[in-house]
Every structure is written in C-alpha cells, then in structure tokens.
Design goal:
The protein is an alpha/beta fold. It folds into 2 domains: about 160 residues, Cobalamin-binding domain (Rossmann fold); about 280 residues, TIM Barrel (Alpha-Beta Barrel), CATH 3.20.20.70. Helix content is about 40%, strand content about 15%. The chain contains 18 helices and 15 strands. Strands 2-1-3-4-5-6-7 form a 7-stranded mixed sheet, with helices on both faces. Helix 1 runs parallel beside helix 6 and helix 10 runs parallel beside helix 11. Bound molecules: iron/sulfur cluster. The site of iron/sulfur cluster has 9 residues, from helix 8.
Length: about 475
C-alpha cells in the first residue's frame, strides 16, 4: 500500500516539499511517483494499492478503514519534514491494528535525518535512501526473508540490537528506461486538474538530476548532479498511453532542467509534433538553457508555459546562493519566450540569510520589471541536508521551526525578523497582482483561451489566502 498520508497537501515527491496552498498557482499533482512504485511492485509480484488521501480530502478514518480491509504486507509513505510527526502517528495506528506490517518511509527531508527518525519512531521499520524504485523491487521480492531483507542496499534500518544503520548507497539508475511506465490505473486520474483549464492533468517524469548546487535545493542530493533523461521513445509511449487510455491531454514535464540538453529536447518536440497528438503542457527551464530554437520547438509541440527559477535580482545574492546565473540574463530568457508565444512563470526566493530591506526592494523591482505571466515569491525554507540548513544552524537563524513554510518564515535573516519576511511576501504578492496592466493582461489571456472561469476561481482563492494570512 503506497500512500500520501492524510496529514496535509504537500508536494511530497518534489524537491521543494512545499505546502500546496502556499503556491501562487494552486495545483495538486497526481502522485506519479507512487504510480511508478506501484508498477514496480506489480512487476515484483505484489498487488499494489495507491492512496492519495490529501488530494481526496480523506481523513485518518478512511486510512484506518483501508488498512483493515486491504491488509497490506507493506505500507510505504511519502513523508515530509513538516508532516513527519503526524505521519508517524498514523503508522503507529496501522501497526496497532496489524503489528506485522512492514513500514517504509520515503521523502527527501526525512532521509537526511533517518537515524534520528528511526530512534524516535519505533513504528517505522526502514527509510529508503536515494532512488526508491529498485530498492522497493528488492524488498517486495525478499519480504518474507527477514535476513536478506535488511541487506538490501538503499535502506536505513536497524540492526539486531536496534541501532540504526545504512545498508549502503544504491547507485543511481543508469538508464531510466529500465523503469516501467507508471501504473496510472492505480490512480484516480480525474481528480487532478490543470488550474488553467480544469481538464485532467498529469506529470511526466522526463528526467532526473541537476548539475547545479544552489544552497537551498536538495535536487542534486536526491537525483545526482548528472542529468539523466528518459529516451524520447519511452516518453512518447507514456504520452500515448495517457492520451489514448486515460484521456489526459494536459501535462507537466517534470525535470529540474528540462531544456538543458538541446538535441534531446528538439528530438522530443519533433516526436510530439510528428505524432499528431494535441497536447497542452508546461515545463521547467533555466535562464541559460533557453534560446529561440528551443522556445519555437516547445511552442510547436504544445508547450504553453515555461517556469524559471530567477530567484533574485541582486547579483550578490545570486552568487551567495550559488545559483550560477546572471540576473540580467533573465530578461533575455523572458523575451525569448514571449516572442515565441510562450507564457512565463517566475520563481523568486526571499529571506536567505543575507537578505536586507534593500535587497528585498531590489527583488520586488526586478520581478516587476521581468513582468512574467505568473510568479511565486517563496520564503527560504531550509530543508535538512542542504547547505542553507547548515548556514542557518550555524548563524542561529531558526525561530519558528514548526510553522516554517514558503508563506511563513521559519527563519530570520541576519538583519530581518521572520515576521518582517512573512509580511513582505504577502504585501509584495498583493502589489504584484493588483497592477492594472497585469490584471488586464491576464483577463485578456483568459478570455482568449476560454479559461476565464478557472482564472477567476484561482484569483479569488489566492487573494483570500493572502488576506487571511494578515
Ligand atoms: S538549478 Fe538550483 S534550484 Fe533548480 S533544480 Fe538545480 S539545484 Fe535546484
């Protein structure tokens, strides 16, 4: 039984681990990671069940009822640093019902503190470290054999005396094509919608890894510093299945640096164009991996929006966070997208330790000048295992560890309080939304694309959320 537990809507499989409601564009993504693990479990001879309780707004009671009726041998949970304690309460309840369930935990924020988690929570048997697919396959295959089970590489578990130990790193999967297609028949695909048009939306995991080492991001430690792409053939097979079998035509191509390898990207776009499939999709990029040729191909293949981590307009801040990019280059990236008919989504980060009132003002002016179609101002939220986390510990910047999120600062900077950061974000977002030219632009776009109803709903919920946080 593979679950997102009923302890809050978070981007559990993602490097950011953020609360869904903290994001400008509120979108609940299908747990394709769990569907992929479901396919793996099936290949290994199990009969898997996938449950995304928060997406269905289902309570703990439903979870317990499922445990009682489904009677899993293995319970696999996606956890986050924010939900760990509550997730573990649920695991304890499942264990009360059936002490024989093997309980496995996964999640970027928990892996780095795995030994502590195992010491604090006896109800958790093991934590999967690194890419979980091949580890889970081995576990499912060996589950009746306790001796062999605890030799599976890629686990943090307990030895005979109860002391946590690591079974050894599992190498990164060399070719992602060895993985099966996600078992989408295990998902309730209809509940995941595009916020733009309300149609069913799913995620395609096209690649893994990122060569950059931004201080706040765990991408590299999760999936390595070398980008591994799936073959175009494998991605096309998945797209075809989504369109033909599940009627899904809206996609997010998940990949930390989707536009990095130009020949692969152009080949994929060509394949989509030649297939004749009419799909509508978005992707992530970096400002130094986009040019006219790539943007034109994206547009022709059905891409409508490209997201960039601009992060900050102050070059010194960009250098300190090791983003490895020039603030000025962002203007060129946005222009390239605009002239090729692509909308842009900008991500900005505020509240890194070196942030001051002056740099916050620079950030606001930078975002205004970039004038992207969508934007997110995220407050730096140090995840265990990142360099940012260590800096914040060293400088004693943590103040509200429990309530820390992208919307509510849990850390102060060297010169600003956590409350100042939270308030700055709220006011700045409202100022950005209520620019008359911005409102007009979005309304025109929504009318042209027949999506006004969805934009209005998104705008109302967003503004309500921001006003509520006063
Ligand atoms: S570029 Fe930086 S923020 Fe983006 S995925 Fe890579 S390490 Fe993370």
């Amino acid at each position: 039984m593979l679950i997102n537990p009923p302890t809050g809507l978070y981007r559990r499989d993602d490097r950011c681990q953020s609360k869904v409601d903290d994001q400008t564009v509120r979108v609940v993504f299908a747990p394709v990671d769990l569907a992929l693990l479901g396919a793996i479990a099936r290949q290994a001879g199990a009969e898997p069940k996938v449950c995304d309780y928060p997406a269905l707004n289902q309570s703990e009671g439903v979870f317990i009822a499922d445990i009682k009726t489904f009677r899993p041998h293995i319970l696999f949970l996606n956890s986050t640093v924010h939900t760990l304690a509550k997730d573990m309460e649920l695991v304890a309840k499942a264990r009360d019902f059936d002490p024989g369930i093997l309980t496995l935990l996964h999640g970027e924020g928990v892996v780095v503190q795995a030994e502590k988690v195992l010491r604090d929570y006896p109800q958790c048997d093991a934590i999967l470290d690194g890419e979980p697919e091949l580890t889970l396959r081995e576990i499912v295959t060996t589950v009746p054999d306790e001796q062999t089970l605890w030799q599976t590489p890629g686990l943090v578990c307990r030895d005979g005396s109860g002391t946590p130990f690591r079974t050894g790193k599992r190498p990164l999967i060399e070719s992602l094509d060895i993985l099966p297609l996600p078992a989408r028949d295990l998902l309730n695909n209809k509940i995941y919608h595009s916020p733009e048009n309300g149609k069913p939306l799913t995620v395609i995991q096209a690649q893994r890894g990122c060569p950059s080492k931004c201080v706040f991001c765990p991408a590299g430690s999760m999936f390595g510093y070398v980008v591994r792409e799936r073959s175009v053939e494998s991605i096309m097979a998945e797209l075809k299945e989504c369109v033909e079998k599940y009627g899904i035509t809206n996609f997010l191509f998940h990949g930390d640096t989707f536009t990095l390898h130009k020949p692969w990207l152009l080949k994929l776009c060509d394949a989509i164009i030649n297939s004749g499939m009419k799909i509508h999709w978005g992707c992530n990029s970096r400002i130094d991996t986009i040019d006219d040729e790539r943007a034109a191909a994206l547009k022709k293949a059905g891409c409508w929006v490209v997201a960039f981590g601009f992060e900050h307009g102050n070059q010194n801040m960009l250098n300190l966070m090791r983003k490895g990019q020039r603030a000025e280059r962002a203007f060129e990236a946005v222009s390239i997208c605009k002239r090729n008919g692509l909308l842009t989504h900008g991500f900005f980060i505020a509240g890194l330790p070196w942030e001051t009132k002056r740099t916050l003002q620079q950030l606001y002016l930078y975002a205004r000048k970039l004038n992207t179609d969508f934007f997110d101002f995220n407050i730096a939220c140090p995840l265990p295992g990142t360099e940012l986390y260590n800096i914040c510990l060293q400088e004693q910047l943590f103040v509200h560890t429990d309530s820390s999120s992208y919307a509510h600062a849990g850390v102060r900077t060297l010169s600003l309080s956590a409350e100042e950061l939270t308030e700055w974000r709220r006011k700045t977002l409202l100022k950005m939304y209520f620019r008359p030219t911005y409102v007009a632009r979005i309304i025109i776009h929504a009318i042209k694309t027949g999506t006004i109803k969805h934009y209005l709903a998104a705008a109302l919920s967003r503004v309500k959320n921001l006003v509520k946080t006063t």
